[in-house]
Amino acid sequence: MSDTHVSDFDHEAGFGDYFALLKPRVMSLVIFTALVGLVAAPVSVHPVVALSSILFIAIGAGASGALNMWWDADIDAVMKRTVKRPVPSGRVTADEALAIGVALSGLSVVMLALAANILAGALLAFTIFFYAVIYTMILKRWTPQNIVIGGAAGAFPPMIGWAVATGSVSVESVLMFALTFMWTPPHFWALALFMNSDYDKANVPMLTVTHGRRVTRNHILGYTLALVPVAMGIGFTSIGGYAYLAIATVLNVMFLKGAYDVWQRDDVTAEADGYRTEKRLFRLSLSYLFLHFAAILVEATMRSFGIGGW
Questions:
Q1: pTM reported for the whole predicted model
Q2: What span is annotated as the signal peptide, if there is one (predicted)?
């Protein structure tokens, strides 16, 4: 277990501190991709069931964030990007974070199973376990492949949303999972290229720390080449269509170009311009995933009006 790093309390914890504990930015992506998975499914869901399910999925994501901050308090305390989080800053104690994470985990899983179905609840339970235990407690501090394997945790929400609607897993939901799973490594490695000192200082075996930036650049290009057919393949399934393919084509050409530009650079050039190209790829990666799922949502909306799709 991590050491509890708590500075002197600047003030009593408020609602905003506890909300920050749930990683709202990550939660927003979870909510959006789960909603897309639910809406894209070929089965209509009662609005009350749909809204309840998304709420419980969001609570489950928040629980994962709280458990992550509880365990990683020592790492967060020495990283510039995370030092102001509620636990390392001392606004919330590690024990509080653990209690909130465990309580919300149980609540979200049980309520999703009751509101939707057992499969959706089981997938949410596995997602929380995978992120909090497999990734946070084991992989993150043990292997440079941490972000590759651990990326599965962030890839489950659209599959959970699909399971809420259908009570099953399908090719479409697996491909939505694969899209996020394959996107995660180049996204985080692009960040690691210009935030490497943070990971080095915290002794996190990110690929940039263990194998250097040259190997990381190779991996970014390799995973991007593997990502493209997954992203484009979705366009030929029941949740795809001409609109999705048009958007995906533009995005993947841009992402490939960005990954290639990062791959062909060396450290001297990157340091000279403040990692401008690497930062550009990271920013593009944020839009890349959002716009792919937005395109799936557009196709689902068009189909509801009898247009789009195949």
A1: 0.91
A2: none
